[in-house]
Amino acid sequence: MKYRALGNTGIKVSEVSFGTWAIGGDWGRTNDEDALKSIQYAIDQGVNFFDTADVYGNGHSEELLAKATKGMEDNIYIATKFCRQGDIYDPNNYSYETVRSYCEASLRRLNREAIDLYQIHCPATEILKDGQVFDVLDQLQREGKIKHYGVSVETVEEGVICLEYPNVKTLQVIFNIFRQKPLEVLFPEAYKKGVGILARVPLASGLLTGKYSKEHVFEENDHRRFNENGEAFNVGETFAGLGFKNGVELAEQLKWIAEGRPTMASAALRWILDQQEVTCVIPGFKNIQQIDSNLQALEARTFSQEEQEKLRTFYEEKVEHLIRGAY
């Protein structure tokens, strides 16, 4: 395993880390026993960082992480998120009292004394512009409830706003071969300021594994079925905003990236890790096989300059105009 600095926090995290939305809920059937075994397996392979949120399974993924990392609090880092249990547009949802209650509830579920990285979970843009929520997080940091904080954003504009606040240590961004816009302005600025980048939706909800056909039907409780067009939350969180059929067609045209690499998925993750500004990728998982598959990115051959340029042209000519929603 290789490790990279998490911005200027002083923490180093595994290049391939993992998100826990899938084991909490909204990705079809889950199995807690498989989830716990998978987390332990990932730790055994050197993974030391997991991302979660208070709304993943209504706190269930936080509870699973507490069980799996008991006694490892000093060397297994956990990032969690808040605000989406309430109205993300309501300023009162970001008051000291409300955020403290969210924080303390997460601490109880995680069974930890402090949260390593506390992130605002895709708030409204106006909340970030107003900036009072950052004063609240500064206060929680002074109280020792959180060690560092960051923001999970939906758009490049929101990320740039966050960079104006000096104590924002990380940005969590939708970033993959289908979503390359952050490379233009956001990533260079973040890198200059020593802000870490967590790349979420790195496989575009599974499209970049190359395993789906247009006929595939997802389970009813899977967001890839109920949020394909942004019915429940931001459309970009599902299939990177492309829609399933468009995404399958585009993924077919990308199968060449697997040539000389373990799998298409490992190649897609490798491409992200080839960007120097990225701290880590945080793909999801449900079982040990998926952990193994994602860890193959560490063995995958780096992309050449020619391949990088080919993928940039592909994004500009074939993909960018199909993305829906603000990004």
From TrEMBL:
Signal peptide range in chain numbering: none
SUPFAM superfamilies: NAD(P)-linked oxidoreductase
Residue ranges of domain NADP-dependent oxidoreductase in the record: 16-314
Gene3D superfamilies (alphabetical): NADP-dependent oxidoreductase domain
MF-aspect GO terms: oxidoreductase activity
Pfam families: Aldo_ket_red (PF00248)
InterPro entries, alphabetized: AKR (IPR020471), AKR2_Oxidoreductase (IPR053135), NAD(P)_OxRdtase_dom_sf (IPR036812), NADP_OxRdtase_dom (IPR023210)
Identification of the protein by name: Aldo/keto reductase
Originating organism: Heyndrickxia ginsengihumi
